[in-house]
Amino acid sequence: MITQRQRLRIKREMAEEKPTIWIGKNGVTEEIIKEASNQLEKNQVVKIKILKNILKSENAEALARELAEKTESTLIEVRGHSLTLYRVKKKLKGI
Predict the structure, then answer these.
(1) Could you tell me the pTM of the whole model?
(2) 3-state DSSP helix/strand/coil percent for the chain, to nearest 5?
(3) How many CB atoms lie within 10 A of CB 25?
(4) Burial of residue 60 (number of CB atoms within 10 Å: 0-12, 13-18, 19+)
């Protein structure tokens, strides 16, 4: 579980960052889920941009919640067409 203080710190840090993943007209695909999972494993935080043409048929908040659920991460923020996800790194096995 993430605290409110941690959530605010992550929002502040990610405000100036550029998105590293873009969700296009195909929506949340397996490739996007895999890439988001890989980036979360490396960096704990990922910023994703949703292109405008998919928002005509779907809601940004719904897409964000779906992606957070499938990547087993916490949704930090949805702002306009961008969203931020956070996941604690999994501990290394065998150490």
Answers:
(1) 0.87
(2) 40, 20, 35
(3) 10
(4) middle
Question: String of b and e for 70-94 (b: at least 16 CB within 10 Å)?
Answer: ebebbbbbbeebbbbbbbeeeeeee
Specify whether the CB–CB gap between 90 and 41 falls below 8 A. yes
What pLDDT digit, counting tens, does each position of 21-34 carry? 999 888 899 999 99
The DSSP result for 80-93, as a single string, is: TTEEEEE-PPPPPT
Distance CA 7, CA 43 (A): 15
Separation CA 6–CA 56 (nearest Å)? 33
The tokens for 10 are 């992550």
- What domains can you pick out in the chain, each with its CATH number? 4-86 (3.30.110.60)
